[in-house]
């Protein structure tokens, strides 16, 4: 099938979170599975032509190739994307985000006409063959690309080129919906009749993700559990009613991991490469991490790692409540992350009091992230909600035992066989589970078995890409 992927961040070009990992890795796995894929994404300031071999396609579009032959098209607009951040800066979201991403969606749709998909499409029985050069599916991600399905079913609906294109919208985190004041609605170029409860209106505001949910053919999230959770009041952020109504079209596919990046046997960032049969290297990584973070080098002291946005969603509210008790335990803790100022300050204060127990790295640092995944014994991820989560998948791959709250993708991937799970979202439950993990780590043989089971898990993209192909076919077959 011919799939056009529209995403506002794609690894290795730009990344703020898991969405970028998916948008970079899924196309590669789809290509391996025999599908034809292109990617369309904005050209942010940090995406340098020389670094990525980017060439010119049109005056305002450039491209490069990843995988064997996946073209990545960059929508250029210096006044919109020529900034340091993707969505905002220290003061908050950019004020013109609606302009920035409605432009992205419009230009992406127009670009499809300028690109010719080369191979003939394999048709599903009953499907209507599209015009030459038309993609079968546009796979859009999150609110930033959600105007694509909206425009397809409105502004573009009478244009024969776009008639038989179907859409899949993937929600990576329903907490981010693209909410804007009503006054900005005219910027979308849509008739005011679409500003109503059945379409883009949400309590008097414009909700772009809602538009995507209404107009896309199929909807999925990044884990089966999260796809159910978002249909409830607790997790739906106000969109649960709409999702319940579209229940038959909502599903969940767990994210895979890019094993070419996350592989302890070949990882260039870590001090000691290792595998299940040569687990010794992991010890070297622990020592390296302790030294690097200024913690006492102690082989037998359990080292806990966190790589995360410092946000309430990631469990920092209960972690903050529990941090003093945790620091009094026989352990070390490395935290890598940036986020809410209140957690920066709180943790900085704790570090002053427990400099030999906790090391705080307030930055985004890919190399250090690799070292933490490899060198820690336990990976803490007490997220309050977690659409999929990559941290626990990476840590499993590196034999670092995840300790998680039972929610979303964490519930789908971590269990008593490969990690530690707590069922009640509270500081007490977190502390209790850390104690349990510390106890378990004293039994060296038992711990090794745990590592073995963790590392044997398979979370590669190959299987997940096949699930996506099924979903694309389902979307297509609806025509
Ligand atoms: P989310 O997308 O909600 O932030 P995920 O667990 O899905 O969470 O993905 C986060 C990704 O970002 C992981 O690959 C994680 O290793 C990486 N990451 C998060 N914070 C940092 C940081 N400070 N430095 C380096 N990598 C980070």
Descriptive overview:
With 479 residues, this protein is an alpha/beta fold. It folds into two domains: 2-256 and 462-476, Rossmann fold, CATH 3.40.50; 281-458, Glycogen Phosphorylase B (Rossmann fold, 3-Layer(aba) Sandwich). It is built from 17 helices and 20 strands. A nine-stranded mixed beta sheet has the order 3-4-5-2-1-8-9-13-14. It has a six-stranded parallel beta sheet with strand order 17-16-15-18-19-20, sandwiched between helices. A hairpin with a 3-residue loop joins strand 4 (61-66) and strand 5 (70-75). It starts with a strand and ends with a helix. The relative contact order is 0.11.
Give the SSE layout:
Elements: E1 2-6, H1 18-32, E2 36-42, H2 49-52, E3 55-58, E4 61-66, E5 70-75, H3 78-81, E6 88-89, E7 92-93, H4 97-114, E8 137-141, H5 147-152, E9 166-171, E10 179-181, E11 201-202, E12 205-207, H6 208-215, E13 218-221, H7 224-229, H8 240-245, E14 250-252, H9 281-292, E15 303-307, H10 316-327, E16 332-336, H11 341-353, E17 358-361, H12 366-375, E18 378-381, H13 391-397, E19 401-405, H14 408-413, E20 420-422, H15 427-442, H16 444-456, H17 461-477
Parallel strand pairs: 1-2, 1-8, 2-5, 8-9, 9-13, 13-14, 15-16, 15-18, 16-17, 18-19, 19-20
Antiparallel strand pairs: 3-4, 4-5, 6-7, 10-12, 11-12
Helix pairs in contact: 1-17, 9-12, 10-11, 10-15
């Amino acid at each position: 099938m011919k799939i056009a992927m529209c995403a506002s961040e794609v690894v290795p070009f730009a990344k703020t979170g898991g969405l970028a990992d998916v948008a970079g890795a899924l196309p590669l796995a789809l290509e391996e599975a025999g599908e034809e894929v292109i990617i369309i994404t904005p050209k942010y300031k940090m995406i340098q032509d020389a670094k990525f071999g980017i060439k010119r396609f049109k005056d305002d579009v450039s491209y490069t190739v990843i995988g064997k032959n996946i073209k990545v098209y960059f929508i250029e607009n210096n006044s919109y994307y020529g900034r340091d951040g993707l969505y905002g800066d220290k003061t908050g979201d950019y004020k013109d985000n609606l302009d920035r991403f409605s432009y992205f969606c419009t230009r992406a749709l127009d670009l499809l006409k300028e690109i010719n998909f080369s191979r003939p499409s394999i048709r599903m029985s009953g499907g209507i063959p599209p015009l030459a050069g038309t993609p079968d599916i546009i796979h859009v991600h999150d609110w930033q690309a959600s105007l694509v399905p909206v425009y397809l079913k409105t502004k573009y609906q009478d244009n024969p080129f776009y008639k038989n294109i179907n859409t899949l919208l993937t929600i990576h985190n329903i907490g981010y919906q693209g909410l804007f004041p009503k006054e900005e609605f005219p910027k979308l170029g849509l008739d005011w009749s679409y500003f109503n409860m059945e379409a883009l209106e949400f309590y008097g505001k414009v909700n772009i993700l809602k538009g995507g949910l209404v107009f896309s053919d199929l909807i999925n999230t990044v884990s089966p559990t999260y796809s159910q959770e978002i249909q409830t009041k607790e997790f739906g952020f106000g969109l649960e009613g709409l999702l319940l109504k579209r229940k038959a079209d909502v599903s969940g596919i767990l994210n895979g991991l890019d094993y070419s990046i996350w592989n302890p046997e070949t990882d260039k960032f870590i001090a000691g490469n290792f595998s299940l049969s040569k687990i010794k290297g992991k010890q070297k990584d622990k020592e390296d991490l302790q030294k690097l973070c200024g913690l006492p080098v102690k082989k037998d002291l359990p080292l806990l790692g966190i790589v995360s946005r410092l946000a309430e969603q990631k469990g920092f509210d209960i972690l903050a409540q529990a941090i003093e008790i945790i620091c009094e335990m026989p352990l070390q803790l490395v935290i890598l992350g940036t986020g809410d100022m209140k957690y920066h300050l709180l943790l900085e204060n704790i570090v002053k009091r427990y400099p030999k127990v906790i090391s705080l790295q307030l930055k985004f640092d890919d190399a250090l992230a690799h070292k933490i995944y490899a060198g820690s014994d336990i990976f803490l991820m007490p997220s309050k909600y977690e659409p999929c989560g990559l941290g626990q998948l990476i840590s499993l791959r590196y034999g670092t035992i995840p300790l998680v709250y039972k929610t979303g993708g964490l519930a789908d991937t971590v269990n008593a066989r490969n990690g530690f799970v707590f069922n009640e979202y509270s500081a007490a439950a977190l502390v209790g589970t850390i104690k349990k993990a510390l106890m378990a780590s004293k039994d060296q043989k038992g711990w090794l078995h745990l590592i073995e089971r963790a590392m044997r898990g398979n979370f590669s993209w190959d299987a997940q890409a096949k699930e996506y192909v099924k979903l694309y076919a389902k979307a297509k077959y609806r025509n």
